[in-house]
C-alpha cells in the first residue's frame, strides 16, 4: 500500500492580459477556500469578470501594486461591480490615483475613474486572502509608491513593475528613479532568496535566483 500523502496546492493563479499595454492582471486564490484577490485590474473589466466566473473563485479583495494607468484603469469599476475593498498601493502613489482620468485620456482609455483605495499599504504590513498571508515590501523607483506582495510560506511574490524577466521597470516617468529602483531590488527583493518565484506586471514571470544570475540590470552589465 502506498502511504505517501498527496500534497494539494495551497494557491492558484491565472493571468488575464488587459489593455493595449498587455498588463498582467492576476487572479490569485487560496485553493482550499477558493477565496481570491484580483491584482492590478488595469482595464477590460468584462474580460476580468469572465475569467473570475470561469475560474470559479470568490473575489474578496482588489490589490494594487502601483498607480500607473495600465494597472489601475479598471479598479474603480471592478470595485463597484464586486463590492470589495481595494488595498494598496503605498500612499506615495496618491498623485497617480488622483489623476487616473487625465492619464487615461493620454492613451485613449475612456471610462476610467480617479479613486482612492480603502487601505493604503506600508512596509512590513500584511494582507490576507483566505488563509494566505502576504507581506508588503515598499519598493519605490518605478513609481514612488510601488509595492511587492510576498508570501514567505509559498516562496512567491507579485512584484508589479519593479522587476521583470530579464529587465526592470522603466524609470523615465514622473516620480521614477533608476538608482532608487535598483536599490529597492537589491535591498528588498534579492534578500528574499533565490528560490522565490514571481509574477510581474508584464511578460513571463521568473525567479529571484534567475534574475540575480542573468538580469543585466542587476549583474551590472548595463
Question: Could you describe the 3D structure shown?
Answer:
The protein is of the alpha+beta class and 222 residues long. The protein contains 8 helices and 13 strands. It has helices spanning 45-55, 69-72, 75-82, 94-97, 100-106, 178-189, 208-214, 216-219; strands spanning 11-18, 23-30, 35-39, 58-63, 86-87, 126-129, 132-138, 147-151, 156-158, 163-164, 167-168, 197-199, 206-207. Strands 6-7-8-9-12-13 form a 6-stranded mixed β-sheet. Strands 1-2-3-4-5 form a 5-stranded mixed β-sheet, with helices on one face. Strand 6 and strand 7 form a beta hairpin. It starts with 10 loop residues before the first strand and ends with a helix.
Let me know the average pLDDT: 95
From the spread of the alpha carbons, the general shape counts as globular
Strand order of the largest sheet: 6-7-8-9-12-13
> What is the terminal separation in angstroms?
56 Å
Q: Got a strand count?
A: 13
Unreliable parts: none
What's the assembly state of these chains? single chain
| Share in β-strands | 25-35%
Tell me the structural class.
Answer: alpha+beta
Helix content: 25-40%
